[in-house]
Write a structure and sequence with these properties.
Length: 193
């Protein structure tokens, strides 16, 4: 998976007034830390962060470009929001490396009209459009795609049933329902006949 560049500027850890000044200027105070490295205080553009945190991108892998220096692989580990405005007030960036598995949220894209709907009159519903996975940065898929046209009614398809790429494992409960196809309900006459 490609790293998304996010420009960051190093800053000196200061008083809360300094943080307020940064936020008024459209910047978010943050910290970048990880195994074998000292924490680095940085600030990032609030507009750029909104793009990174757009729906479905919560676990985007980032390259923090700190003071013009690339190669700082990170993921947003945590962030705090203002209770009233819901604006992000602080971010924790966690350093990642090529050998460390990262938990990510990946979209599940289903295609095809199931047999259970097309010929058996059932109904189909996708219960989860995202799935939590664990993988090293190089193995993270952009999406899990699946053709569901051969599934009959009734079917309940769980996360444990997904065919995951090599080096990728589930980071959620195996019984998370991805989709289900319910059988057509019988009318009273059919049930009694």
């Amino acid at each position: 998976m490609e790293l998304t560049k996010l420009v960051a500027t190093s800053r000196v850890q200061g008083k809360s007034a300094d943080s307020k000044r940064l936020r008024k200027a459209g910047q978010i105070p943050a910290v970048y830390y990880g195994k074998g490295q000292e924490a680095v205080n940085v600030s990032v553009s609030a507009i750029d962060v909104r793009k990174v945190l757009a729906p479905g991108k919560r676990y985007t892998l980032l390259d923090l470009v700190i003071d013009g220096k690339e190669g700082n692989a990170a993921v947003i580990y945590n962030y705090q929001k203002d209770a009233l405005t819901q604006e992000i007030t602080h971010i924790d960036f966690l350093k990642i490396d090529d050998s460390t598995k990262v938990k990510v949220r990946v979209p599940v894209k289903l295609s095809g009209l199931p047999v259970g709907v097309k010929t058996q009159g059932g109904t189909y519903a996708q219960q989860n459009r995202y799935i939590n996975l664990a993988a090293t940065p190089a193995n993270i898929p952009t999406a899990i795609e699946m053709d569901i046209s051969e599934f009959p009614a009734p079917t309940t398809f769980y996360a444990k049933d997904l065919k995951l790429p090599e080096g990728v494992e589930l980071a959620c409960t195996p019984r998370v329902v991805i989709f289900n196809i319910t059988a057509k309900r019988k009318s009273k006459e059919e049930a009694q006949g």
